[in-house]
Design brief:
The structure is a single chain. This protein has 307 residues and is an alpha/beta fold. A five-stranded mixed sheet has the order 1-3-2-4-5, with helices on both faces. A hairpin with a 2-residue loop joins strand 4 and strand 5. The longest helix is centred in the middle third of the chain and has 17 residues. The protein is elongated, with a radius of gyration of 25 Å. The chain starts with 7 loop residues before the first helix and ends with a helix. 41% of the residues are buried.
């Protein structure tokens, strides 16, 4: 499905009774009054949780903190799905924690799973009409980069999706989300995400790099055993080395692909109408123009061409 906290000064002046009114435990019996009718005046978050749910114990306090900090701009209703399964079923809640945002009597947004405070803030900012702002976008992009580095592709995807909820045309977020799908082996969905990019972003380096990576992914599932065997028999089998490089690049091993392509260029610069050099430039684009693969590869290429 689709941090610095809001209004610190307002939160400090909120009374205990105000806080109790902003955050309450709801039931199926009170859902219409606490959520549907209340959301016609103030946006309402519904937190579906259960006592046995570990992530719920992380998310609910963070939600309470963010809602309190918003100083009355939003309310929170917590519903134990074990005791109140009715509306959770109607909303097709399949896993918890699940949070739905209601405005004007209708669900308008939501998410599943525990989110970091920065993403909760951005989510609430969007719901209550806050700008989201450059600071929120940069924080989310930073979180996505960190998550990717830690191998948390799901976390990175959530962060990029949150950026796109604030700015649907954000090129870096579009490219990042596409790469997340690509990392999970879904090149088709990655291509669909890239199609979201506006025409003016066609030349953007992040978009172009992601498109190159998607194009390379076509050979990701090809076998390499025969190619490895051919190279073991003949290191100058440039065709086998080129095909192996294409497969490695499709799997995201841009460094390995670049190494093979540079070996071809080093042995025969003009082989097959510069096929290796052309493939190498595509690998650099897919890896990112400022990546270590591209920087180190260009240095090695220059050394070969000007030696």
């Amino acid at each position: 499905m689709f941090g610095d906290l809001i209004g610190k000064g307002r939160a400090k002046t909120a009374s205990a009774s105000d806080a109790n009114d902003l955050i309450k435990a709801g039931t199926d019996a009170t859902f219409m009054a606490d959520v549907v009718e209340a959301s016609r005046h103030t946006p309402v978050l519904v937190d579906f949780w259960a006592p046995w749910c570990g992530p719920c114990r992380q998310l609910t306090p963070a939600l309470e903190k963010a809602v309190t900090a918003a100083g009355g701009a939003i309310r929170l209703v917590k519903i134990n799905v074990d005791e109140n399964p009715g509306y959770a079923g109607q909303l097709r809640v399949q896993s918890i924690p699940a949070v739905f945002a209601f405005r004007d009597g209708q669900p308008v947004d939501g998410f599943m799973g525990a989110l970091p405070e920065s993403q909760l803030k951005a989510f609430i900012d969007k719901l209550i009409g806050g700008s989201g702002g450059d600071d929120e976008v940069e924080a989310l992009l930073g979180l996505a980069t960190e998550s990717t580095a830690l191998g948390d592709i799901g976390g990175a995807a959530q962060a990029y999706a949150q950026v796109l909820s604030l700015d649907p045309a954000h090129a870096k977020a579009i490219a990042g989300l596409a790469r997340c799908y690509l990392a999970n082996g879904d090149a088709e969905r990655a291509g669909e995400v890239l199609d979201m990019a506006p025409p003016e972003a066609a030349a953007d380096a992040d978009i172009a790099g992601a498109r190159a990576a998607v194009a390379l992914a076509a050979r990701a599932n090809s076998e390499t055993a025969e190619l490895d065997s051919r190279l073991a028999d003949n290191e100058d089998d440039h065709q086998a080395r080129l095909e192996l490089a294409e497969i490695l690049a499709g799997r995201g091993d841009f460094a390995g692909a670049a190494d093979h392509l540079l070996q071809i260029i080093g042995r025969d610069r003009a082989w097959n109408d510069d096929a290796a050099r052309k493939a190498l430039l595509t690998v650099f684009e897919a890896a990112g123009p400022m990546s270590d693969v591209a920087r180190q590869g260009r240095r090695r290429l220059s050394a070969i061409l000007f030696s």
